[in-house]
Design a protein that fits this description.
The complex is a heterodimer of chains A (641) and B (279). Chain A is 65% helix and 3% strand. Chain A has helices at 2-6, 33-37, 42-71, 81-116, 124-142, 172-200, 213-245, 258-292, 299-312, 328-356, 365-388, 390-396, 400-430, 436-462, 479-509, 547-553, 555-571, 583-600, 605-625; strands spanning 11-14, 432-433, 511-512, 575-578, 630-635. In chain A, helix 5 runs parallel beside helix 18 (583-600) and helix 8 (258-292) packs antiparallel against helix 11. Chain A is globular. Chain B contains nine helices and no strands. The termini of chain B are far apart. Classes of the chains: A mainly alpha (641), B mainly alpha (279). The interface between A and B is large, with 45 and 40 residues.
Amino acid sequence: MEATAKSNFTGHDEHVAPKRASVFWRPTSKTGLMSWLTTVDHKRIGFLYGVFALFFFIVGGLEALLIRLQLAVPNNDLLSAQQYNELFTMHGTTMIFLAIMPLSAAFFNFMIPLQIGARDVAFPRLNSFSLWTFVAGAAIINLGWFMKAGAPDAGWFGYAPLTSSTYSPDHSIDMWVMGLQLLGVASIAASLNFIVTIINMRAPGMTMMRLPVFTWMALFTSFLLILSFPAITIALVELMMDRLFGTNFFEVSNGGMPILWQHLFWIFGHPEVYILILPAMGVISEILPTFSRKPLFGYPIVVFSGAIIGFMGFTVWSHHMFTTGMGTVATAAFALATMAIAVPTGVKIFNWIGTLWGGHLQMRTPMMFALGFIWMFMVGGFSGIMHSAAPADAQQQDSYFVVAHFHYVLIGGSLFGLLAAIHYWFPLMFGRIVSEFWGKLSFWIIFTGFNITFFPMHFLGLNGMPRRTFTYDSNLGWNTPNFIATIGALILGVGIAIYFITIVYTYFKGQKIGRDPWDARTLEWSLPCPPPEYNFAVIPKVHARDAFWYEKQHKEEIAKENAAQAKEDKAHGGIHMPFASIYPLVASIGLLVAGIGISALDHNKLIVSIIGGVIMVAGIFLWAHEGNEGYHMHADKEEKS
Amino acid sequence: MSSHADTIDHHHDHTTTTGIPNKKLVMWAFLASDCMFFGVLIATHMIYRLYPPPGAPDPMDIFSIELTSFSTFILLMSSLMMALAVNAIQKNNLKSMRLSLLTTVFFGAIFLGCQVYEFQHFVYAKHLTLTNSIFGSTFYTLTGTHGTHVAIGVFWLILMYVRSFQPAAGIKDKGWFWRGLIHIAAVIGVVIFSMFAVIGLTHTLQAGEGFGAFLSHDFGLLIGLAVTTALSFYLARPRGPVAFGEANAIDVESMGLYWHFVDIVWIVIFTAVYLLEYL
């Protein structure tokens, strides 16, 4: 944490402690635990999102390794069936909600303001609330490991009626429900913030069609989030009402229909897969031009394809339900829509290839992961198109073929994109660059291990191995592929370990670099590495799509502009910075206490929930009344680099 | 980022890229999200109404459309008062804004009171509970979620009303924070006591008992009402310049957007859940 903490001192403050009522104490320290708990700086919040996400990524990865070890040989008894159920449920839930999504959120937080030339997000304190509410939700979901009830065990999509109190009487499902609801609150709050930031906080000249593609994808992802999360939230509310108050939403004996859960879940669940992949597509659209030494091929088409994917993401949810007997018309309609959504996706892939074509390719580590993304995501995409044919899908449903498909799009797609993003933006975030040798080594081991693990699963699935079975007999012909997959998983684990050790080593001891190590194109690279607390000493004027590239070609013009702008800023009292605030954290703690009260306790449910509610309301109340004022800062002579 | 303009332009915020104030934009985006919340709830209700299990209760036997029409009308009128409050603060007319906010709270409280009465009536007289039928489950969850939105709105209105008494910066007034808390509690007290007093009176009159019986049943409520009302008036006395002014119009306006949205959702619910049954 030292590196980011120190970087904040390239300026000096004034009026740090204003006169105010003592209840509205504002934290002013810039180092130490308190500064991290109360921070409203989007870069620090992004960093914390990243730390939590990578922690849960490792947890989810270890869960996956246990699953693979159990399946290595037939009739294995390393895990009991119950433990296996808990592990695959938590592996899915953790990877989707606690690893990939927050890792995307980490880069959204860190990069959006830098890419659009802003000094922070639109609502800095709301941003802090999103972070801590996410942590609260993650804690509640994982609480089961430490309790008698055990971890949630109904699968990551928790189909009714398995989640009803008849079949899951203990608290594990309650905690899963409550944790996901808190994560929903956190995601919606964060997305609202990003939407307003991107639409309203752009630097002069940064028109929408000059936005970096990563920011565009962040905008689409945010819209998907605010429109899809309500569906799962209401489904979870209905499930919670069923479990706590005895309503009948999914209770067949009283007229409830379990199929309703599937519809509501997948109305959320399918946009969710685009929530996972669009940020990675944005990252790729940044990395390929940088390392191909060319502008992105067909920028408007890439942007509009993203919009179309986002929109169509809401029209295909029932392809997860082809075998539920929806009727021929519905099945045909959803099959067609699913085939159609491959078109904008394919358009993007051709645009990326167009970007590479004739470029002067530089095979640095981020570029390796980006190219790996394109290839592996295409493999996952092809098996996805196979699923869109409903008759074929009826065979593949719930088999390892599906497992292979979504791991190719989630690891080969989303995760490769995010691993590329870590390498790409690491120099900007911490001022140090990852060693090419260790970076590339980790890439090749991850790439090899990943394919050895998941490619055999296609065959396992076509040979009939169902997913979510904790063991299998030796005479079914599944032994060899399963054993190969387990070996692959271990190789993948080694690759990931090398990746993380390299990253952590670089964080502390890596080679220091100056500005703009990749000779990149977008605005965030115009800043010192790592960027100062206020981001831009002078708010830039944007003249072209690849704003920083233009700046590098027109140095005199930009210098003149900046000098004029700096003068004007000085007349307005310097750089305005928001105060840190503890109340978002207080509100999140209230949610955590209330969530635990409702979901995890046998006694004193009501009292604990009410105490939590009161803490939350108090936090929000004080937050609203402390006011959004800040202090002024003056950028000193910028550090030479 | 500080505004030096003498007159505030309420339709264009020059500090943002689009000219739309951030607080307004975030509220619009949130309402889009909230549309989906209610959309899912209403869809759940409609689907289960299309496929009722055998022996399901008939909504026509349960609803009392007159009462619900009345409360719908009141909620619509509260939107008018909300709009007047926004208009007043945009013209820096603090007194008029406070009056309009209180009227909005009053109308919102009538709506909530009608809902409390309706729920009581359905449970005790019509035997429709949350658990005994799928209709009860979807009906109470949907209208209850809407009622929660209204209650949050009323709470927010009260907070905004009390906040308008916060003394201006630079004025030495250490007690305002705690006074403000008591003020909020007092106004909430007025709302709750009066709501239950009216419901109590209705029940007494329906039971054929006289006004005297009401006094003896609900004497405590009336005392509470008197005390909180007196306290609210006392705390609302003018005490010198306040911080709240035209610059806060955007706060009132985004709250107004929320309030109007909750009204519109009720129009949809009233149509889909109540009126459609009478087709």
